[in-house]
Amino acid sequence: MISWRKHYKKTLIAIGLLLSTSASFYGQDGDPKNGEKLFKANCTACHALDKQVIGPPLKGVVERVKTEGGVDRDWLHKWIKDNKALRASGDKYANEIFEKYNKTEMLQFPNLTEKDIDDILAFTTNPPAPEEKKTEATPAPGADAAAPADKSTTNIVIISLLAIAGLLVWILVKLRQLVKLGQSEELTGLNESRVRSFKEMYEKFHYVGKGIIAVLAILAAYGVWNWLMWIGVYKGYKPEQPIYFSHKIHAGEQKIDCQLCHSSAKYGKVSEIPSMNVCMNCHRTISEYNADHYMEPGKDKAFYDGEIQKIYAATGWDPAKQQYTGKTQPVEWTRIHNMPDFVYFNHSQHVIAGEQAIINSFNKKNPNNKIDVVCKACHGKIDTMNVVQMANDFTMGWCIECHRTTEVDMNNGYNKEYFKNLHDKLKKQYPQDGGKITVDAIGGLECGKCHY
């Protein structure tokens, strides 16, 4: 009996060790919720749970490496911390993976602790179920919420019918009065004094007629002149583009700098339309829309995912194979801001030389609508626009007004020295203004500056 009890205890201990080792191996000794945060912070640039991105899908990776390479969790710890050193040591399975994925070297993560890696492995083994989104209950069509609207509509119809009935009664009364008038002697006198032809009416009222014609002619001339002056002014113009691109999501929600995409706006004459390869810098690894906290009204996740697929079609990117096919499609963007050919405008001159001066001038004129980026002075608050539109008139008068009110930045060492004599002259000429130098004082109104 004693011998049997000893064997029984040994068996229980062995089973306990086996279960604990198994649980540890499958990553269950970690915290999946914390692992999800670590995974998103460190892994999502190259990996997804259920599909290949740059690297393989990581769902069930613990079981997969055991089946494919016969390695355990300790091997995964070494691989994640420093896969380069693991390959250099001659590890067969590590080098097989390196060759399998086109010798794309995985980043090293020496900063992750053993517990961090355990949490990540727990997440890949058993991802937490997504939390259900709380949605506000909305009344069904035809419910009590619709009752007040129906009652209001009924009242409006009744009031309208009563008004029409009253009008008909009034018309009948007036017709009866006219009939009575036709039967009286007063009507005979009126018939003798009335105008019987257009000629008589013109001779009687020709001064009034000429005055009215003159006023109408002046109004018509002003209307034509005003219409001609606004040809080519498209403030508020926001065309539909072949690929939907929300600046509010990219520049607003994600805080992407304007010049990351429009790289020539600062140092070039023209702010170019970014090539699709610029989009692929991010969307090579972002193949679906997961920012559930912001969606434009009327659009859902399927819509945004479809627009990302258009980027892949344009660049010839195969997300399954993670490589370019060579079959590209041109994207015919609709241009929004376009200066006439007879107008010279240099972006770099305004973005670099005039940056602080333009921002200061704009904020001074708009204290309740200040800007932090010079681009917004002309293009409006792009980071709040889902669909980009022309925010200003972009007329000659609009530019001249800006040149007349924008002060030159005299804190700039170059300007302070270069315009020293001009500054002294203006101080004497306009003492009440303190000799302020605005852009028009340094040639901002010269025709040849913009028209050449």
From TrEMBL:
InterPro entries listed in its UniProt record: Cyt_c-like_dom (IPR009056), Cyt_c-like_dom_sf (IPR036909), Multihaem_cyt_sf (IPR036280)
Domain Cytochrome c: 30-128
Signal peptide: 1-25
Pfam families: Cytochrom_C
Residues annotated as transmembrane: 156-173, 207-230
Annotated region described as Disordered, given as residue ranges: 125-148
Domain of life the protein comes from: Bacteria
SUPFAM superfamilies noted in UniProt: Cytochrome c, Multiheme cytochromes
Keywords carried by this UniProt record: Heme, Iron, Membrane, Metal-binding, Signal, Transmembrane, Transmembrane helix
Keyword Iron: yes
Keyword Ligase among UniProt keywords: no
Regions of compositional bias (Low complexity) in chain numbering: 137-148
Molecular function terms, GO-annotated: electron transfer activity; heme binding; metal ion binding
Protein name per UniProt: Cytochrome c, mono- and diheme variants
Source species: Chryseobacterium jejuense
